[in-house]
Design goal:
Helix content: 25-40%
Low-confidence stretches: none
Number of helices: 8
Distance between the termini: 13 Å
Order of helices and strands: EHEHEEHEHHEHHHEE
Bound molecules: S-adenosylmethionine
Largest sheet: 8 strands, mixed
Structural class: alpha/beta
Oligomer: single chain
Mean pLDDT: 95
Shape: globular
Number of strands: 8
Strand content: 15-25%
Length: about 230
């Protein structure tokens, strides 16, 4: 089993327990620092049936027909060439091997992720999003998912919407998330002067008012989860 673009491998390390000791998981990401952090996480958790590799999803250094399953959470839509990544995924899976992946549903349904972009856009700090370019919401249309998956030689996917809540304990916690970990917004925010950052921060908190809960926020969130073979 492969966890593709695994980041810290939250998903893969859960799956490693499910496949049991006779099963094996390969945790991969194209960022060496992510792979190193995932390895440390596995050590902390005592997960042993796992190996770690730096691997580009668009050109996998893996043999053909060798895997029973591939997992990929929140990454295909960020890839420069998702068609190549799906074709590579089909190549390394054995016939009948399963692919399960998750991408984000539309911007409006994921305010925790999209609020900052909207504010930055309204202030002219970034251009309006290019629907063709890689982004958190580039695969929010189930038709696009089907086109990519079937185009890569997979069967028609089953696609399920999964809703959940995304809470932040206080406004600082949300601002830290936005400035430190949100891959698209944080470099832009950090490049702004402190005064402009403060203005953006106030506007983000204003835009997040409908989701206020206690000292912090409780955002709705929706993913599209797909399974195919
Ligand atoms: C939003 S994170 C998701 C990480 C993890 N799957 C999770 O759900 O927590 C996206 C990850 O995709 C990785 N990534 C993006 N493009 C990639 C590619 N072409 N090949 C491999 N990894 C890629 C990034 O390095 C990053 O770790």
């Amino acid at each position: 089993m492969l966890d593709l673009a695994a980041g810290l491998a939250d998903t893969g390390l859960m799956a490693a327990r499910l496949v049991g000791e006779s099963g094996r998981l390969i945790v991969t990401d194209f960022t060496p620092e992510m792979v190193a952090a995932a390895r440390r996480r596995a050590e902390e958790l005592g997960v042993q049936n796992v190996e770690f590799r730096v691997l580009d999803a668009e050109r996998m250094d893996l043999k053909t027909d060798i895997l029973d399953g591939v997992l990929c959470r929140w990454a295909y839509m960020l890839m420069i060439d998702p068609s190549a990544a799906f074709a590579e995924t089909r190549r390394v899976l054995r016939p009948g091997g399963r692919l399960a992946f998750s991408v984000w549903a539309a911007r409006e349904r994921n305010p925790a992720l999209s609020l900052v972009g909207r504010v930055l856009e309204s202030q002219g700090h970034i251009p309006p999003p290019d629907p063709e370019a890689p982004s958190a919401f580039a695969m929010a249309d189930p038709g696009r998912i089907r086109e990519l998956v079937v185009g890569a030689g997979f069967a028609e996917p089953e696609i399920e919407e999964v809703s959940f809540r995304w809470p932040f304990a206080d406004q600082d916690a949300y601002w830290r998330y936005v400035t430190e970990t949100a891959a698209s917004a944080s470099p832009i925010l950090r490049a702004l002067s402190p005064e402009v950052q403060n203005t953006v921060r106030e506007q983000v908190h204003e835009a997040a008012r409908p989701y206020q809960s206690g000292e912090g926020y409780d955002f709705p969130a929706v993913c599209l989860n797909a399974v195919t073979y």
